[in-house]
Amino acid sequence: MHFCAEMKNLLSNLRFILIVFLLVWLILLFVLVIWTKAEIHLYVNQYHNHLSDAFFKYITNLGDGLMPAVLLLIFLFISFRKAFAIGLSGALAGIVSQVLKRLVFKNIPRPKSFFKDLAELYFVPGVDVHSSYSFPSGHSATAFTLFLVLAYYSKSGPMQLLYLFLALAVGYSRIYLSQHFLIDVYFGALIGIISAFVIIMLIDKSKAKWLDSSITKIIRKKA
């Protein structure tokens, strides 16, 4: 009963971005079914300019593995509940994606290696492009889990839309920078979303009062 109530609350708070994401998800599924990952990547790799190079070079860092730790530290001063939701969901998404890419799908090459003798790719200057452990995309998993948690707790339509845009931008950046194929990002995002759902429901289920406190509130009480 509690599980159903929590799931209903979760879906209600994220209804808008989940609808948008589902539409994008279905469109990308169609793309993945119709074209090969090589065809999709070569098509995307055609379109580059200086502005996009700079934008995606830096926006991709929002999916870095250190982001959950950074946000956790920041949110400890705002809300322990939100801080732990961010930290734990980021950790879960990171662990799952790393286990899959390094143990289960360890022999799948990234675009740089895949196209080595097949086609010449454009690489954004200043970006260290990796060659192995392509599937799934860890950056995409991290970005989607973090921004979904932030969207859930914001409960603001415009902010939720911004978080969705940032998650999608990080995912696209992995393809734009030739760090991953679309299919890597597709399933990385799925891992991130599932991780966020699991942790949010576990955290919200807890009625521990200390979770609704923060370092700031504790300092104020002692002052």
Task: Summarize the SSE layout with pairings.
Layout: H1 2-13, H2 15-34, H3 37-45, H4 50-59, H5 67-75, H6 80-104, H7 111-114, H8 138-154, H9 157-176, H10 182-205, H11 215-222
Helix pairs in contact: 1-10, 4-9, 5-6, 6-8, 6-10, 8-9, 8-10, 9-10
Fill in the keyword field for this structure.
about 220 residues, mainly alpha, Vanadium-containing Chloroperoxidase, domain 1, about 0% strand
Summarize the structure in words.
This protein is mainly alpha-helical. The chain has one domain (2-222): Vanadium-containing Chloroperoxidase, domain 1 (Up-down Bundle), CATH 1.20.144. It has helices at residues 2-13, 15-34, 37-45, 50-59, 67-75, 80-104, 111-114, 138-154, 157-176, 182-205, 215-222. The protein is elongated, with a radius of gyration of 19 Å. The mean pLDDT is 90.
The number of domains: 1
Which CATH class is shown?
Answer: Mainly Alpha
Morphology call: elongated
The major β-sheet equals: none
Q: Which structural class is indicated by helix and strand composition? A: mainly alpha
What is the CA-atom radius of gyration, in angstroms? 19 Å
Calculate the terminal CA-CA distance, rounded to whole Å. 42 Å
As a percent range, the share of strand residues is under 5%
CATH topology: Vanadium-containing Chloroperoxidase, domain 1
CATH architecture: Up-down Bundle
